Amino acid sequence: MKARGLILIDYELPGGYMEAAEEQKRLEEAMNNLVRGNNRVSYYQCDIKERRGDAKPDLRKLKIRTG
Questions:
Q1: In sequence order, what are the residues at sequence separation of 6 or more whose Cβ sits closer than 8 angstroms to the Cβ of residue 11?
Q2: Residue-wise pLDDT tens digits, 4-27
Q3: What's the rounded Cα separation, in Å, for the pair 41 and 35?
């Protein structure tokens, strides 16, 4: 069976892109620690995107498009 795990974190970053870069680095470190030594993980990736609005998305309804 294949599965995809999702984590969603909304940030308030008054310092803008510099703070976003710091948070991305922290996320990458945390993700590396989470998957290190886990043979079940075949791929992992992290990214931070600018968001608009204050609506909280429902991950169960989120559609992921690849390719």
A1: 19, 20, 23, 48
A2: 998 999 999 999 999 999 999 999
A3: 7
Q: Could you tell me the two tokens for 20?
A: 């976003």
**Tally of structural domains, the chain:** 1
The answer to whether the pTM exceeds 0.85 is no
Domain holding 30, by residue range, is: 1-67
DSSP 62: P
60 close to 38: Cβ distance less than 8 angstroms: no
Distant-in-sequence, close-in-space partners of 53: CB < 8 Å, separation ≥ 6: none
Q: Is the dihedral of CA 13, 8, 49, 20 positive or negative?
A: positive
- For residue 53, give both structure tokens: 């609005």
Give me the residue label for tokens 């968001």.
51
Helix (H, G, I), strand (E, B) or coil at 7: coil
